[in-house]
Amino acid sequence: DGGITQSPKYLFRKEGQNVTLSCEQNLNHDAMYWYRQDPGQGLRLIYYSQIVNDFQKGDIAEGYSVSREKKESFPLTVTSAQKNPTAFYLCASSYLGTSGNYNEQFFGPGTRLTVL
Amino acid sequence: AQKVTQAQTEISVVEKEDVTLDCVYETRDTTYYLFWYKQPPSGELVFLIRRNSFDEQNEISGRYSWNFQKSTSSFNFTITASQVVDSAVYFCALSEGTNAGKSTFGDGTTLTVKP
Q: What is the pLDDT averaged over residues B50-54?
């Protein structure tokens, strides 16, 4: 089945540790995104990538890092520099339309990160 | 800068009632795209509809309908004859034509449909 997978579903981390969240898509989409969602709030963009080996900071990139070595993979590392990492993290992808614009985003099931 | 406002934080209705979720947006671009997504309790967002700025035609899909009005910068979503399965958080989002890869989301409206 085509879609986006995120692993793990739940992740616990000790303060001061880096942790990497996985995101894989087999939709052959060009663009991929990482969002953070806090309780009762909307989605805030962390990083996005429109092409392999290139990515841009979103609105809240501090304390996070990403890589895009393959089209289908866009892992997110939450570093110890992120002050409040406990949140729900969502990965998404979208495809480039014939008019040159990106279309709707398809989302993975999310990873819930808790810092102990 | 682009901005999306969903003023209704929570809405509670009884099954079979109609309900409208409001979305107001701000953008300086003349080309932009509006979206609605549904987030059920499982957490995964599901795409519902996309509308571009050149198409003000309203759309109906089953019990769902959308009203796009550029004059008031609104893109409202109506559920007719609501059902318990409609209970979810609904997000409105905006992408500008100059950087259509990047979407700005509203804070969401939590809809609870009671039996």
A: 90
